[in-house]
Amino acid sequence: MSGHRFRFAPSPTGFLHIGGARTALYNWLLARQSPENALVLRLEDTDRERSTDEAIAQILEALEWLGLDWDEGPVRQTERATLYAARLDRLLAAGAAYWDTASADEVKRAKEESGGRGYRGRAVAEGTAGAAVRLRVPDEGETVVRDVIRGESRFENALLDDFVIARADRTPLYNFAVAVDDSEMGITHVVRGDDHLSNTPRQLLVLGAVGAEAPLYAHLPLLHGTDGKPLSKRHGAASVQALRDLGYLPEAVRNYLALLGWGYDATTTFFTTDELIERFSLERVSRSPAVFDEQKLSWMNGHYIRGLDRAELARRTREYMEQHGIEGAADPKLEQAAAAVQEKVSALSEIPRLVGFAFGPVETDPAAWEKVMRKDGAAGVLKAARDALAPVEPFDEQHVEQALREAAERLDVKPGKLFQPLRVAITGRTVSAGIFESLALLGRDESLVRIDAALARL
Fold first, then answer.
1. What secondary structure does DSSP assign to 117-174, as a single string?
2. Rounded CA gap, 50 and 56, in Å?
3. For position 155, what pLDDT does the model report?
4. Average confidence (pLDDT) per 10 residues, the chain, 458 residues
5. What share of the chain is helix, strand, coil (3-state, %, to 5)?
6. Which of 294, 306, 206, 194 is CA-nearest to residue 253?
7. Dist CA 307 CA 90 (whole Å)
8. pTM higher than 0.90
């Protein structure tokens, strides 16, 4: 078989979390380094109580949003029962597996009585009450996990239990199904999170029992939050869907995820996807936990937003607004509006908040009104601003700025004293797109209408 074969094998029990997304990305980058490589998408859904079709749809949607395609699959383990049954029959017939009735407590007691040696059961007939299928572990030798990142780990077989590989109804347990799948699919590299390391010796023993060659393993360091604790919802966005809903760009997320545990050199931060494919290697993945810092992702996302041309930024913003039912997605002024705040924002979600005033009636924030418009002199400077703006032609950013700065000089006030009442009058808020861009976006007529309405309230 030519090329290397990788697999991404999530359990579909919820959204695709960030650690899973990084695992998918690393496998994808490795698979795309040669046209002879392949990436298999396998859904490990044998836990029928927790695995749902909704979760499967969410995982596929998240991978597609990230731009991570696959060559084979998605393959569901629940559709492979015939394969598992055939492998199980073969192991039972060969004496490599047997039916046993021992409970977890009985296994624990037997280990204590034997001074910690691995549990070895006593075969009973299939159908015996409480019986499950255990794999027979060799009494001699070692099971060796060869890991690209962690090096070699050796497990003395005499200390390992004969472990359960199938339930009483012959349905397979996780480690048996995974090892059979890796064998049948010809997987050459298993790249997954550190939390699976404890499963690896058992999977290697199953592979040995079925006569399959072991893949090369790479167990990725787990992700922590900035507080040093394992990443969870308390750290903020913990799933790909959450990042998408916050307005991050998929190319920025790919770049950031790649750097969680991997680095090309000490200085390079930004990589195109093609550069990541070319430069990524497992040998450069750290053994230490990686820290997910949403502030850094936000900074990186801002860099990517500023790199978009106006039309593309408008397209992405429109798509985001449509997905979230935000007013103004179809407004022809959207491209101009998004461009007006492109240098300010770090996420698409911030754009409609800053420019939403241009797509509907002004909604004044009471706190903004009290803070700015109740000050002495607010009415006077707002009236002066209106008089300065009324004759401006053309009504663009450059000429609007010139008129307002000249008005501030005539009043002998700092520009901010003029701009803030004007900003609240036309946007309803103290924070928005730049005042000149905001006025040009609204146009002269709408700007004057809003200023007049504010003056009528003062």
1. PPP----B-TT-TT-EEEE---SSSEEEEEETTTEEEEEEGGGS---EEE-TT-PBPH
2. 11
3. 95
4. 90 93 98 98 87 93 98 96 97 98 96 94 96 97 96 95 97 96 98 94 97 96 87 73 96 97 93 97 94 95 98 98 96 96 97 94 94 90 96 96 96 93 96 94 96 95
5. 50, 15, 40
6. 294
7. 58
8. yes
The dihedrals phi and psi of 413, each to the nearest 5 degrees, come to -125, 160
CA distance 254 to 181: 28
Checking DSSP bridges between strand 38-43 and strand 72-76, what pairing results, if any?
A: parallel
SS3 48: coil
Name, in order, each residue with C-beta under 8 angstroms of 257's C-beta and a sequence gap of 6 or more.
18, 21, 22, 25
Identified catalytic residue from 233, 371, 375, 414? 233
Distances (CA, A) of 196 to 52, 135, 209, 219: 22, 19, 20, 7
Nearest CA among 68, 72, 53 for reference residue 20: 68
Does the annotation count 333 as an active-site position?
Answer: no
The contacts of residue 162 (CB under 8 Å, 6+ apart) are 100, 118, 119, 120, 121, 134, 135, 136, 137
> Which of 361, 374, 384 minimizes the C-alpha distance to 453?
361
Q: Give the residue among 292, 320, 313, 42 at the shortest CA–CA distance from 184.
A: 42
Burial zone of 377 (CB within 10 Å; 0-12 exposed, 13-18 middle, 19+ buried): exposed
Contact 225, 235 (CB under 8 A): yes
Domains located in the chain, CATH noted: 5-74+175-223 (3.40.50.620), 86-166 (3.90.800.10), 233-351 (1.10.1160.10), 366-457 (1.10.10.350)
3-state secondary structure of 97: strand
How many whole angstroms separate alpha carbon 375 and alpha carbon 407? 19
CA distance 137 to 150: 24
Give 366-418 as a DSSP string. Answer: HHHHHHHTTSTTHHHHHHHHHHHHTT-SS-SHHHHHHHHHHHHHHHT--HHHH
Say if residue 394 is preceded by a cis peptide, omega within 30 of 0. Answer: yes
| DSSP annotation string for 414-434 | -HHHHHHHHHHHHHSSSS-S-
